[in-house]
Structures are given as C-alpha cells and as structure tokens.
Amino acid sequence: MHRYPKAGLQNLAAQLAGGTGVPPEDAALFAESLVDADLHGVPTHGVSRLSIYLKRIEAGLIDPKAALTIDRRTGSVLALDAGNGLGQAQARKALDLLMPLARQNGVATATVRNSQHFGALSWYANYAAGQKMVLLAMTNGEPAMSPAGGYEAFFGTNPIAASFPTGKGFPVKIDLATSTVARGNIIAAQKRKAAIPEGWALDRDGNPTMDASEALLGTVLTMAGHKGYALALMVEMFSGVLSGAAIGPDVGSMYKHLDRKQGVGHFFCLFHIDAFLDYAEYLRRMDETIDRIKTSKKRPGAEEILVPGERSARTAELNRAQGIPVSDETVAEIEQWCSRLKVAFNCHEVFC
Amino acid sequence: MHRYPKAGLQNLAAQLAGGTGVPPEDAALFAESLVDADLHGVPTHGVSRLSIYLKRIEAGLIDPKAALTIDRRTGSVLALDAGNGLGQAQARKALDLLMPLARQNGVATATVRNSQHFGALSWYANYAAGQKMVLLAMTNGEPAMSPAGGYEAFFGTNPIAASFPTGKGFPVKIDLATSTVARGNIIAAQKRKAAIPEGWALDRDGNPTMDASEALLGTVLTMAGHKGYALALMVEMFSGVLSGAAIGPDVGSMYKHLDRKQGVGHFFCLFHIDAFLDYAEYLRRMDETIDRIKTSKKRPGAEEILVPGERSARTAELNRAQGIPVSDETVAEIEQWCSRLKVAFNCHEVFC
C-alpha cells in the first residue's frame, strides 16, 4: 500500500489520460473523479480503474475526444449522447448543462446514452450539494443479475443514488447497488478460497450456490428478492429504455468485452432546493433530522448510528491528511502506463 | 367474502364520504382510489380503509373540504399544501397540476405537505401512463422502522414507486415498501399464533424476535439491512424534509393517534416521454425489454417470469369480470356507516 497527495495523484492520472488523446479539460475531470473515489474510500472506482479505461481508449472502444451532444431538448429535459466518451467527464458535463435549467425551473433531468461506467457518486454528490441542489442519479451497467424467477444475467447491479446537502460538513449520500452484494466480494471470497453466504448468487444453471467460483460463472442475486428486481428494472427503464442507451444484456462489459463498446445509459435529476423551501429552513430541517437519527436509541452492541455519507466523509478527511492509499498492484499498473506513454511518474509518496 | 360491481361500490363509497362533508368531486376521487386498490388486489389500501378515514373526518382530524394550495411555484416545481385533506384526492389533484407543467418542460415535480396516506399506487400509475408519462412517487408514513443500528421507530415503511407506460395493456408498476415485510404480515402471524421468520422485526428492546406479538411492540426491519435504511432515508428526505411535512417520528398514526393529525408528505415527479424520445420508439424499446425479460431462462421450479405490474393487471381483469371482493368484516363496517350516515346500501352483490 502506498499513499499519495491528492493533487499529485490527480495530475498524474490526468497526464496519462492526456497521453491517450483525452483533451486537457476532460482528462482533468476524469482524473478528479477517479481520485475522488479513492479519497472517499471507494478504491474499486478509483485509480485502480485507470488501466482499463486507458486500455479501452487505446483499443478504440472509448473515444477520448467525444463531444457531449444534445439529441433533444424540451424545457428542463436534455436527452444527451455521450458519443462513447469517458463516462466521468460526460456525466459531469451533463450536470453542468442541467444546473442552470434546475436553477430556472426548480428541476431538470438528463438522460445520457452511449456512455461508460461513470465512477463513484461522491464526486457528483458534493458537486450538486455545493450548488444547493439535490441529485438523483441512476445508471445501468453490464449484465450481472437476473429477473426474479430467472437466471440469465440481464440487469447490471443497477445502482440508485441520491444526495442531499446538509449543514454538517458532508452531504447525505445514498448510493447502493440493487444487488445483494458487489461482485467484488465474490471475487475476494474466491481468492481466499472461502465459501460465500447463501443468498448471494446462483450458479450457471440457476441453482443457489455457496461456491464462489460457481457464482462467478452464474449471476448475483438482487437485494431483497423481488424488491431488488423491481428496483433494478426501474433503474434500467430510466437509464436504459428512456435514454436510448443499450438495455440489459446488450450493455458491454468493461473487462470482458475488449471487442465492443459498453453503451451504458445514465439518468440524472437535479432539484434546486430554493424552489421547494427556503434553503435556511431546509438546512434546519435536514440537520435536525440527522441529529434525531444519530441520537435515537442504539441496538445492543451498536456503537454509533451513522447516516449514509458520514463514513465516507470521515474516510476522505483521513485520506486528505495522510495521503490517498493506492495498492501495490495499481501502482505497478500506473508505472507501466507511465513508461508506455512516456509520462514521468512525478508523484511523491506521502510517508506518515 | 362478497363481490360487488366496481361502479356500484365506488358510488357507495363516494356517498359515504359525501355524508361526512367531502364535496362531490373529492368524494368521487377518494372512492375511485379505494375501489381501484381493491380492483388491483391491494385490499389493505381499499374500502377496508373507508371506515378509518370517515372516523378521522368525524373526529376533525381530516378536513373534508380542504383545498390544495400552492405554497411556492418555481418553473416546473410546485410545493403544495394539502390542508390536511384526504390524501387520495389531494395527490390526484397534485398530479393534475403537474401534468401541463410536465408536458411543457418535460419534467415536473411536486411536494405535498399536510396530507394523509394516499392509498395504492395503481391508480396514479394508470393515470400517468394514460398521459404518456412516467411517474416517480414517494411518501413518508407513520413510524415503523429504525435506522440501521437503532431500534426506535423512526421511518414509515416509506415506499418508492415508479410506473412506465407500455404497449402491453398494463403499465410497468414498481411499488415497494422499504421494509422487509408489511406490518400486516406480522399481524396475520399473530392472529394465527405463528412465529415470524428471523430478520423481520426487533422487539421493544432492540433484540431480534420471531414472536409476532413482541414484534408488534417493536419495529419492522428495513429491507436488505443498511440498503433499506438508506432508501427509507431517501424517501424521508424527498417527501418529509423537502416538502415541509412532518418528519419521521412526528408523522401521526392513522389508527393509533385518534387525537392528532398525520401530517404526511408526498413527493411526485412526472416525466413526459416525448421529451426524451419519440413515444413510438419508447414503446418499441419498452415492449422488447419486457419480452426479453419474460422469455429469459427460468430458474428450476419457476413457472413464469413476471414484470412488476403484470400480476396486479391480471387481478384487475378478473375482478372487473367477477366483481370486486370485499371481506365480511369490511361489509359490516360499511353497513354501520350507511346506517349512521343515512345512506342506502344500494350496491348489489355479484354472484358468479
């Protein structure tokens, strides 16, 4: 494990993206998103993904210079085409287009098609919260889960996310995959040669399995059975069907399909709080609600009641002070890309 | 069990509401919502609730003549005050106010405060779908669930609902409480003197319990642990905090608190499909997605893969033909109200 200062790591990631043809502005957004994920303790969406993005750019599967174009505009709705560009940069630019519309009309919505995985939510959440806006976001993804009663991978782990500004120094940040568990946990169990709990996955014939290797050939189960199926379907309809993106099994896999585009679709809704109530009154209500939740009676054995977003804000504070942790494996990958793209690894480790 | 024709039952319910002072237009909406719930196989939200609504009106806890007023209007956002009127009538009128805004701006959002339980989603879903609109709806409710790590009833079973028009004769209709199970299932287990499964509820000291009576004194668990907590919180923030309604433990109970108002808050978002893509193209994409889901491989033992909304549409078809089922207990309650309000029980049973 290594720790790097935020600015240096971000600069390095941006230089590498630039080395594969991403223009400076987009490279900066992309790098900011990746490092922000690491900062907030979501390394699965951080610089550990840099390599696969660069690989897909080099393979012509992501267009580094793609523009974000407007397919259709009606009042406060934008139907956008990401032109197969980097999800993070295109999603952030979509929010920038939405913000004046939300400020004017109170609410604004965008769908985005022809996109990729757009990274972790924290970055968008903090951005929207800084503008006194509530963000609702969904995205489809590569097939991993089946409808209730089925066992073909149909839906992605289709996350639902929402963030709300607070006066507590961090936004409340809801961000959950509609699967029982992230596929990463099954991969981790396989590496440890451990069994996985019942209810996590089906094998390739649709039978429940506790064998991690069998599970990886099969499907991950939706959270809470048919309720998770319903939510995954909702996400697919907002971000896949309504957007004009690839739907369900047609979405390409980031790691498995090195011969076709992903075609991911996103859905964003921004709500300007001033349109609903005075911002000061909103903050008072929000903070009081958080206080009441945190001081409500704790279950035997529970140390603290957290609100969603609180833990990741604490992690970010720690990482900002101590440097952002990056695994040995990811550092080695970055070094390879530096040598390949003739970029100096000019980011100095932080030693606490 | 008795079965009644839809029109007759609806007329009777409207007359009874009228008898407690609800004006004809609102009484018709209210009755239509209740009977529509029964029609779609959701009797918990149907005429079985007529009695408690009438009781609350008579007790001065619901204002039968309440107007729906606009607290604030910004572009496509309406912050509404239901004036403590009937949730069903006020929510439907809120949708009527939103529809022209959604048609004009592609998206429109309303919050509603000072409201009551607004009934079942089917009614709103079919209404929005008929206007080529996607509906997203949330509502808070009387305290039943605790935050993860806590055991004080804080959140309602805070449902999330969304509906999408299709070319299949029914809208896709997602409608789920964020609890593991409806409280009604625990009440049913108590009546049967049966144990409840692990993971459904906590007792009043915050310990897991399989005893239905203990569970009813405690709290229902959120679906999927902390994910359900996060979703319940999201619903509370959209429909409680943002709306100016009562929040969490301050929401009154319909059955338990016969001395105070409920103060429920709702959140609605309407999306006009034409703003995103051509409606014909939308329908093609939607129907193809449904077909692919339904024809995907079935798990061993699974007879059919359903999409959310399909089963309730079948139930409605059956009930439309055979008459709407009403329990003996509910018929007796309605008879009592007829005699009390001097309304003739002029609805003739259907005998199949």
Strand order of the biggest β-sheet of chain A? 2-3-4-11-5-6-7
Q: Terminal Cα separation of chain A, in Å?
A: 12 Å
The CATH class label of the largest domain in chain A is Alpha Beta
Q: For this entry, what is the oligomeric state of its chains?
A: homodimer
What is the CATH architecture descriptor of the largest domain in chain A? 2-Layer Sandwich
Give me the CATH superfamily of the largest domain in chain A: Malate/L-lactate/L-sulpholactate dehydrogenase, NADPH binding domain
Residues in helices of chain A, as a percent range: 40-55%
Largest interface: A-B, 84 and 83 residues
Q: What's the number of domains of chain A?
A: 3
**Global Rg of chain A:** 20 Å
Mean pLDDT of chain A: 96
The chain-level structural class of chain A is alpha+beta
Number of strands of chain A: 12
Order of helices and strands of chain A: EHHHEEHEHEEEHEEHEHEHHEH
Uncertain parts of chain A: none
Major beta sheet of chain A, specifics? 7 strands, mixed
Shape of chain A: globular
Strand content of chain A: 15-25%
Number of helices of chain A: 11
Q: Can you give me a brief rundown of this structure?
A:
With 352 residues, chain A is of the alpha+beta class.
How would you describe this protein?
2 copies of one chain form a homodimer. With 352 residues, chain A is an alpha+beta fold. Chain A has 3 domains: 1-65 and 323-352, Malate/L-lactate/L-sulpholactate dehydrogenase, four-helix barrel (Hypothetical Oxidoreductase Yiak, Chain: A, domain 1), CATH 1.10.1530; 66-179 and 222-280, Ribosomal Protein S8, Chain: A, domain 1, CATH 3.30.1370.60; 281-313, no CATH class. Chain A contains 11 helices and 12 strands. In chain A, strands 2-3-4-11-5-6-7 form a 7-stranded mixed sheet, sandwiched between helices. Chain A has a 3-stranded antiparallel sheet with strand order 9-8-10. Chain A has a two-stranded antiparallel ribbon with strand order 1-12. Chain A is globular. Chains A and B meet through β2, β4, β6, β7 and α8 of A and β4, β6, β7, α8 and β11 of B.
